[in-house]
Amino acid sequence: MSFISGVGLTAYGKHEGRSTLDLMSEAATLALADSGLKRSEIDGVLCGYSTTMPHLMLATVFAEHFGIQPNYAHAIQVGGATGLAMGMLAHELVEAGVTNNVLVVAGENRLTGQARDSAIQTLAQVGHPEFEVPLGPTIPAYYGLVASRYMHEFGITEEQLAAFAVLMRRHACLHPGAQFHDPIMIADVMASRSIATPLKLLDCCPVSDGGAAFIVSREPVNEFGVRVMGCGQAHRHQHVTLAGDVTRYGASDACGRAMAASGVDLGDVDYAAVYDSFTITLAILLEEIGIAKRGEAALMAANGEFEITGRLPLNTHGGLLSYGHCGTGGAMAHVVETHLQMTGRAGVRQVRDASLALLHGDGGILSSHVSMFVERVR
Questions:
Q1: Average pLDDT, stretch 322-331?
Q2: pTM score > 0.85 for this model?
């Protein structure tokens, strides 16, 4: 048993002059304050990677910088799934009695800390060094290929996929920390410049500076009562051109394992936080997890089912697509928002009920998957 006892999140966007360690520290300070714990009570630290500070020992560098001396420190690197993978490890560490309070933290000045071409080149290395990278594809290019295949398989149009971008922007407009606050319509998505056919600029998440943190504790340390029920992972491929079946990626496997560990049914979920690096990412994950039938996720979005007042509120902070994406911290913002919703602290974004939530992270080109179920017990 474990509990998410505190969360912290910076605004995402441009933070001139702020380093990886600055952003991590700000988020960690907020999480500590939220939990009511002292620095001396943190006995474990898990941190994500940073492309602008690729240190071999980032966890201990951060611990030293932040002024803590944990019994356990570890850094994890599975792309966009890293945040939830760290949450899963923290949950297992406290359940095993290794630690009492684990600080999970990530941050990166990805927008202001590196040149655009450098960022593109760094991220493109996720591709196969022999069969993909020499041909020059970028991350959006890989997802563009996935989107083309998906649209062919299920008859979904670019306009229908754009409903996710519109939805995420609508939610972001209600969050003061979001990178974008200008409402958009389907026509705006369609008019935005092409990035990698069929994906356009507004189908893609932005590059951001920011930081996020949360604390996983063995016992409740405050009144929040948000319990981690169980988690699951799946890693079916690394390189998308070698994946075989390009309509199944492993999200269902991860979610199935998390359901088995949690003893819950997907139909009982009343809040969802799902990785959304691109509109196509969200469509595929929602369908593979089982929240939507194949080819119907975008239609559900257009019908209002994922709105704050909808049947299953989704990414109510605006997600990666509009709150922003600063690397590992991008998906961790989903954890923070879920905690705020479950503790009734989401303000104008507050949903009617968030007693059982599903979180899902995706790393690489739909390569690594982590699902987590959390429940409100108070």
A1: 96
A2: yes
